[in-house]
Design the sequence.
């Protein structure tokens, strides 16, 4: 087996850093990861929530249900920080 | 591993305080957290329920099914207490 | 940890009393709680079922699947008993 | 804890009697309960199936998947046997 | 407890006989049950698949995922074999 | 209990042969089964994917999530190989 | 039992190589697999995300929730790399 970066190792390395989280529904969040557990429930600080209609909401601290998370992007700063190439 | 704030620690710190809960569907609740369990089922008191059509309903005490919870915001006081920045 | 009211304690205290149950779909029920189990499956008596179209149906005794329950409100007497404030 | 009627006790008491079952989708069934297991999978006899379009279908014996059951009503005889009061 | 016909006993008795299976979506199947397991995954032979648009497809042997099964009807021969009474 | 063909036995017998797989959504696949596990995750080779709009895509090797599989048909060669009889 | 390529063996062989991942919703990703766990949560690097509207987004590293994955294609390079034959 090649040397791997395990999923929970990646999450652990993100503690203290900005991440971008895409939920199963239409919500997305960027924030500083301050903690997580084995179910990948996550605590974020200094959060921006991105609604599907383009609205943004600032939140100081949130807890996200790991079941509802689709994708985590380390260092991400929300939809505006990604590079569209199409 | 950096020092963390674990998800259940955050929930535990919220006992006795106001929180804002966003469910998987369109319902949102603000209330005082009076208890929770390992499935993050939660008991809230002095609750305001926010419907998707803008209506609000006052409820004295409720139990929420943890499976249906998408996000918890400590100190939150419902949609009106957030800062829209878009 | 602050003194808590655990979710199953709240359900247990409701045995013998009227409760209001909101299901994941559009159904709501008020009735007297006569029993429950660890999955929060619940037996209700003297039940009124509230359909989304405003219709009400009287039922003597029902068993509700705990997986499908979104919210329990102690002492509730259905949508008509809540205080709309918006 | 008050004296309770546990959910599985209620189901057990219904063996040999008519029950009414509401599934998560739009189907409803009335029939004689002839058996069940811990997942509340149920065997019914002399069944009437009620479709959402008002059609009824007679079935001699069926097995229902407990995961898909939303509500059980003892002694029920389908939508026509309930009392609408709105 | 009254003498029961347990769900898995019913399925076991159906081995070698025609059954009718209704899936959670819109598909229905009739066929000869040739095997099943504890998750009620089922192997059927000489199968007719009934689509929601009225089309029928003949299949020699299939395996159905038990999670997706809503209802099993012993001796059933598809929608055409039921008695509509409404 | 009659002599049975257990579901996992059927899958095992299909290793090395063409199968047709119908997913819970609208996708269907035909391919040679090269492996599976207890969750019925499956590896297929020389795959044709059938989209709901009639398009076909050739894929050399794929892994399918067993949770998402609705039906497996041994020897099947996709929608075109079935016999419509309605 | 014929010699098999087990699903997790296939995933393990893909570590260090390009893969194409189709999620349960409409998202698809191509990237280099750098790690996975028993739930088939996966870490990808040098990722292109393909939206259903044809847009592409470049992402350096992502973690995908295994529950949400429908299909993995080794060596795949996204929708443009497949051969449409219909």
Sequence:
């Amino acid at each position: 087996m090649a040397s791997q970066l395990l999923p929970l190792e990646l999450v652990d390395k993100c503690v203290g850093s900005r991440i971008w989280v895409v939920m199963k529904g239409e919500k997305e969040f960027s924030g500083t990861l301050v903690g997580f557990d084995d179910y990948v429930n996550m605590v974020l600080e200094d959060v921006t929530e991105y609604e599907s209609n383009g609205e943004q909401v600032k939140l100081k601290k949130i807890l996200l249900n790991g079941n509802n998370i689709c994708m985590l992007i380390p260092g991400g700063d929300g939809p505006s920080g990604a590079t569209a190439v199409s």
Notes: DSSP finds one helix and six strands in chain D. Residues 30 and 77 of chain D are 6 Å apart (CA to CA).
